[in-house]
UniProtKB/TrEMBL annotation, chain A:
<dbReference type="GO" id="GO:0016887">
    <property type="term" value="F:ATP hydrolysis activity"/>
</dbReference>
<dbReference type="GO" id="GO:0005524">
    <property type="term" value="F:ATP binding"/>
</dbReference>
<keyword id="KW-0547">Nucleotide-binding</keyword>
<keyword id="KW-0067">ATP-binding</keyword>
<feature type="domain" description="ABC transporter">
    <location>
        <begin position="6"/>
        <end position="227"/>
    </location>
</feature>
<protein>
    <submittedName>
        <fullName>Sulfate transport system ATP-binding protein/sulfonate transport system ATP-binding protein</fullName>
    </submittedName>
</protein>
<dbReference type="InterPro" id="IPR050166">
    <property type="entry name" value="ABC_transporter_ATP-bind"/>
</dbReference>
<keyword id="KW-0813">Transport</keyword>
<dbReference type="InterPro" id="IPR017871">
    <property type="entry name" value="ABC_transporter-like_CS"/>
</dbReference>
Automatic annotation (TrEMBL), chain B:
<feature type="domain" description="ABC transmembrane type-1">
    <location>
        <begin position="74"/>
        <end position="254"/>
    </location>
</feature>
<dbReference type="GO" id="GO:0010438">
    <property type="term" value="P:cellular response to sulfur starvation"/>
</dbReference>
<feature type="transmembrane region" description="Helical">
    <location>
        <begin position="20"/>
        <end position="38"/>
    </location>
</feature>
<feature type="transmembrane region" description="Helical">
    <location>
        <begin position="115"/>
        <end position="134"/>
    </location>
</feature>
<feature type="transmembrane region" description="Helical">
    <location>
        <begin position="232"/>
        <end position="250"/>
    </location>
</feature>
<feature type="transmembrane region" description="Helical">
    <location>
        <begin position="78"/>
        <end position="103"/>
    </location>
</feature>
<dbReference type="GO" id="GO:0042918">
    <property type="term" value="P:alkanesulfonate transmembrane transport"/>
</dbReference>
<keyword id="KW-1133">Transmembrane helix</keyword>
<keyword id="KW-0813">Transport</keyword>
Amino acid sequence: MGTVALAVNGGVRRYGSHTVLDGVDLEIERGVRQVVLGPTGSGKSTLLRLLAGLETLDDGTVARPDDLVTSTVFQEPLLLPWLTVRENVRLGGRYRANRDRFTDTHADALLDRVGMAGHADAPPAALSGGQAQRVAIARGMAVRPDVLLLDEPFGALDPATRAGLQTWLRGLAEADGLTLVLVTHDVDEALYLGTHVAALDGEGGIGGRWIPEPSEAPGGHPLRDEVLAGYRSQVVGAR
Amino acid sequence: MSTVVASRTTRPASPGLRTAFVAPVAGTAAAVGVWWLITTVLAGPESLLRAFAPQSAIPAVGALATDGVLVTDIATSLWRLVLGLLVAGVLGVVTGLAVGSSALLEQGTRPVFQFLRMISPLAWAPVAIGVFGIGHRPVVFLVAAAAIWPIVLNVVAGVRAVDPKLTLVARSLGATRRETLTTIVLPTVRPHLLTGIRLALGIGWVVLVPAEMLGVTSGLGYEILNSRDQLAYDKVMAVILVIGALGYGLDSAARRLLAP
C-alpha cells in the first residue's frame, strides 16, 4: 500500500439542475492504475477533470497537493496542428510550471519509446489516429507527471488499434511504475489495464470496486460477468 | 514538407505556362492600347487628355526620376505607409485580442466599430490636421484609421477560431493564462493576422495618396497636386503610374511574404 497521491471526498458536481457527481469518494495511491468505469454521461470525464484540477467541485473536497503534477490525455489526440510531432511532445517544456522537471532529451526519448521517433518532424496531420494518440500520451508523460490522467484515450480508435495500444500502455505503465487514472466505458479495457477498478453507479456515486488479477490479454477476464452485470443494471437504473 | 512545396510550384506551371505568361502581357498591352486610343486618337487636338497619353507620361516618369523628386516622394510615402500600418497593427492586435476573448466587449463594441468602419478615413482629414497640425502625423493617422479595421476584424475572427480543447490541453500541462495565449491563441491567430495585414496594406495605400493631398508638402499625393499646379499633366499621369506600379509591387510582395 503506497501513499495516496490524489483523493476526492464526498465530491458533488452539478451542471445547472443536473447533478453529475453526488458524493463520490475515490483515493488514488501512487503506483496504481485506477480505472473509472461508467457509461456515457455517468460523470466519469467530469471526475477526471476534477482530479486534473481543470474543474472545481460544488461540494466536497479534492485532496491534491500543490506540488502534485498531473497531465491529461484526452479522447482525441488534440495535437497542435502548427507544430511538428517533436514540438508537440516538447510543448510542456514551454511552460514555467514544468521548467525544473522538463528536458528536451527526455521528451525525445519518450517519442522513441512510443515508437514515433521516425515521425518526429512530421506534421500531426500526417499521422493515423493510433499514432497521434501515442504522441499525445508521450506529450502527457514528457512533463513527468506524478499522475497521468487518461480520458477514454482509445475511445475514438478502431478495435484492432485499440487492443494494440491497450497492451502497449500497460507494458509502458508497468515498466515505469506510472500512476494512471483512466476512465472508460469498456469493461474489458478496464479489467485489462486497471490494478484498481471503480464503477460509477449512474446516479453520481460509485457502485462497485474491484482489484482484478492481471490478465494476459484484453477480454475474457474472470470478473467480466460480475462487472458487466452491475454495469447493465446501472445503465438501466440511470434511465 | 518539401514534396508539398514542390508539387505546389510545379503543378500550376506546367500545363498553363503559355497562358500564364501570354495572357497578362496581352491584357497589359490591350490596356495600354486603349489608353493610347483615348488620349491620342479619340482626343481632339486641343484636348487636355493629350497630355495624359502614354508617349508623354512614360518619359515624364524618367524626367521626375532625374529631378530626384520621385525617389524622395516614394521614400516619404512609403515611410508614412509603414508608420500608419505599424500604429494600426499594434492597436488592432491589442483591440482584436481583447474583443475576441470577451463576449461582453464584443457586443459592446460591435455597433461602435460598425459605425466607425463605414466612415471614410478621409472624412477625418480636417480633424487630423486640426489635432496633429501639418506634416507626417495627420497622414499617418489617416492611414492607420483606414488600416486598423481589417486587422481588428481578422484578429477577432482568429481568436474565435481558437479550439477550446487545445486551450484545455495547455492548461492540463500546467500553462498559465499568458502561456496559453502565447502557445495556443497567438499561433491560431497568426494566419488571420497575416490576412488582415495584407488587406490593411491595400487599403492603407489607397488612402495614403488622397491623404497626402491635404496639409503636406511631400509625398506622391502631394506630387500629383504639385504637377497639376504647374499644368504639367504628363507628370500627373507619371505619378499615377508610379503609384499603381508601387501598389502592385507592394501587394505582390505582401502576398508572397504574408501567405498564411
